[in-house]
Specification:
The protein folds into three domains: about 120 residues, Methylthiotransferase, N-terminal domain (Rossmann fold, 3-Layer(aba) Sandwich); about 240 residues, pyruvate-formate lyase- activating enzyme (Alpha-Beta Horseshoe), CATH 3.80.30; about 60 residues, OB fold (Dihydrolipoamide Acetyltransferase, E2P) (Beta Barrel), CATH 2.40.50. Strand 18 and strand 19 form a beta hairpin. By secondary structure, the chain is α/β, with parallel strands linked by helices. It is globular, with a radius of gyration of 23 Å. A six-stranded mixed beta sheet has the order 17-14-15-16-19-18, with helices on one face. A five-stranded parallel beta sheet has the order 2-1-3-4-5, with helices on both faces. The chain contains 14 helices and 19 strands. Helices cover about 35% and strands about 20% of the residues. The protein binds iron/sulfur cluster. The site of iron/sulfur cluster has 10 residues, from helix 7.
């Protein structure tokens, strides 16, 4: 394939890890050949679709998108279609059979061979060590520090499609962050299925802590990043966490450094110990409450968000009531509420999916409503406060969107005669005057 000005279109479904993976693959091509990004699907010469398998709905959306590409492939025989992600891992042969026009199909367990595969497909020399290019000039960028998961929650497909935990080496993480900060990135978001369980791989020998000769853990990594790059003005955040891996040390580091986000996403999933056990979550409701208390005691201003699942097999009304109860008690800043859907190959899929659809829907509605009421009340407390805001995008001539250190979204409007110097990527200080749905509202004159 002649690589003269070939255009890449990215379509990513699913989690932050997929966003980072798509950009990584595009970066490999751009660094090695004459490729560039396009946001016009019809003009693309390479289409990268990164798929998700976490719910049936996500797989259906990816299938429908891939199906629509057949027409483009008929029109342009040179078009290359690359399908990545967890769905590609879980159902490679099914996808190949259904969409024979796909050129490359690779799941996360095959990513290590991608440079070679791309090299053969595009006849270019791919450099395996390509850095993240921040293709979309984002203010906030995901930096993967680990992939995979050892937890095997009974409903989750991730350990099967992404494998067990693998940690990125520290030198690579640090140098990627430095490149991003040098390019003006203002928020680094460390990502992984389970970031708190990070430990530096053995090849980072020279970086192991001298006192203990232990490999570096997540709290130490966080502290290292903040100290090493203290001359830059940036915030750091991390996603996602498992309650069993949240340690006092992590909370202490957040408390000690003002540029680490005062936001923690800590999936609870259910308020019933019986259901938590069936989910193989490895904590009890009591233990989870203790963790939240510890976090709030150390950092009272922190915002805590969560994930909840309703309608897990055998969930009775009393289990659901327990979830409502703990949600009322713990007052999350916001929550993602999901209706259970079985994933083939997981342990939970062997259980009878016996909660009727209407019951799942009713519980979903009720829990979501409760979470939204709590979220609204929590946001009310911000009215009248002054917040430092990182501006992330401009919605229209007079409206900007940003976030504060507790990861609340803030909409700032300026009037036509405003002298405010407000730009994407800037940190500004502003007063919150109102709230609208999930947004904190601020006006600058
Ligand atoms: S912790 Fe559980 S839910 Fe999260 S990725 Fe691992 S197995 Fe899936």
């Amino acid at each position: 394939m002649n690589t003269q000005h070939y255009k890449i279109y990215l379509q990513t479904f699913g989690c932050q890890m997929n966003v980072a993976d798509s950009e990584y693959v595009a970066s490999l091509l751009i660094t090695s050949g004459n490729f560039q990004i396009t946001n016009q699907l019809n003009k693309a010469d390479v289409i990268i679709i990164n798929t998700c398998s976490v719910r049936q709905h996500a797989e259906d959306r990816a299938s429908s998108f891939i199906g629509r590409l057949k027409k483009l492939k008929i029109k342009n025989k040179d078009l290359k279609i690359i399908v990545l992600g967890c769905f590609a891992q879980r159902a490679k042969f099914e996808l190949q059979k259904k969409f024979p026009f796909i050129d490359i199909i690779a799941g996360p367990l095959e990513y290590e061979y991608l440079p070679e595969i791309l090299q053969n497909t595009f006849s270019i020399n791919i450099s395996k060590n390509s850095q993240h290019l921040n293709l979309f000039n984002k203010v906030s960028v995901f930096v993967p520090i680990m992939t995979g998961c050892n937890n095997f929650c009974s409903y989750c497909i991730v350990p099967y499609v992404r494998g067990t935990e693998k940690y990125r080496n520290i030198k690579e993480i640090l140098s990627e962050i430095k490149v991003l900060l040098d390019k003006g990135v203002k928020e680094i978001i460390l990502i992984g299925q389970n970031v708190n369980s990070y430990k530096s791989p053995n090849l980072d020998h020279e970086l192991t802590t001298e006192a203990t000769n232990q490999n570096i853990n997540f709290a130490q990594l966080l502290e290292m990043i903040v100290n090493l790059y203290s001359s830059y003005k940036f915030w750091i955040r991390f996603l996602t966490n498992h309650p069993k891996d949240i340690s006092y040390d992590i909370i202490k580091v957040i408390k000690d450094y003002s540029n680490i986000s005062r936001h923690i996403h800590l999936p609870l999933q259910s308020g019933s110990n019986r259901i938590l056990q069936l989910m193989n979550r490895n904590y009890t409701v009591e233990k989870y409450k203790e963790i939240i208390q510890m976090i709030r005691q150390e950092i009272p201003e922190i915002s805590i968000t969560t994930d909840l699942i309703v309608g897990f097999p055998t969930e009775k009304e009393e289990d659901f009531e327990s979830t409502l109860q703990i949600v009322k008690e713990l007052q999350f800043d916001s929550a993602f509420v999901f209706k259970y859907s079985p994933r083939k190959g997981t342990k939970a899929a062997e259980l009878l999916d016996n909660v009727p659809k209407e019951v799942k829907e009713k519980r979903h509605f009720k829990l979501l409503k409760l979470c939204e009421e709590i979220s609204y009340k929590k946001n009310l407390k911000y009215i009248g406060t002054t917040q430092e805001v990182l501006i992330e995008l401009q919605k229209d001539k007079n409206t900007f969107i940003g976030k504060n250190i507790t990861n609340k979204t803030i909409q700032i409007t300026i009037n036509d005669n405003s002298k405010s110097n407000i730009n994407i990527g800037k940190f500004i200080t502003t007063k919150i005057c109102d709230i609208k749905n999930h947004l904190l509202i601020s006006k600058l004159s």
